[in-house]
Amino acid sequence: MATSHLTSVFRPPLPWTPLVIAADRCKGCELCVAACPKAVLALDRGRVNALGYHPICLTDRSGCTSCALCARVCPDAVFTVWAARREEHRQ
Ligand code: SF4
Ligand code: SF4
């Protein structure tokens, strides 16, 4: 059903993370690393994805502000960005 599909698409990730990373689409170009103002993105040199590249990973979940600059510059739509929950803004 279309309604249940939309519900699953817009459901926040659990466990909570500001970024959902489709690592198998990453080409390792590091445009997102250069764009991130918080320096919380890096290539995971311990992994190789389906395309043969070291994929991007989030190095500090608490340092990410959900600004989405990484998603704007990524040519391969690797990132889905979630805004922090309201209770996290109050902490
Ligand atoms: S959303 Fe912003 S702070 Fe978080 S990883 Fe992307 S560019 Fe960095
Ligand atoms: S900009 Fe996209 S393709 Fe390039 S390293 Fe970052 S996530 Fe990977």
Residue windows where pLDDT falls under 50 for at least 5 positions = none
What percent of the residues sit in helical stretches (DSSP H or I)? 10-25%
Shape assignment: globular
Question: Could you give the order of strands across the largest sheet?
Answer: 1-4
N-end to C-end Cα span = 38 Å
What is the strand content? 5-15%
Summarize model confidence as the mean pLDDT. 89
CATH topology name, in short, is Alpha-Beta Plaits
Oligomer: single chain
Report the structural category: alpha+beta
Care to give the gist of this entry?
The protein is α+β, with helices and mostly antiparallel strands and 91 residues long. 24% of the residues lie in helices and 13% in strands. The mean pLDDT is 89.
Structural overview:
The chain has four helices and four strands. It has 91 residues and is α+β, with helices and mostly antiparallel strands. It has a single domain, classed as Alpha-Beta Plaits (2-Layer Sandwich), CATH 3.30.70. The strands form two sheets. It has a two-stranded antiparallel sheet with strand order 1-4. A two-stranded antiparallel sheet has the order 2-3. The radius of gyration is 14 Å and the shape is globular. The N and C termini lie far apart (38 Å). The relative contact order is 0.26. The protein binds iron/sulfur cluster (2 copies).
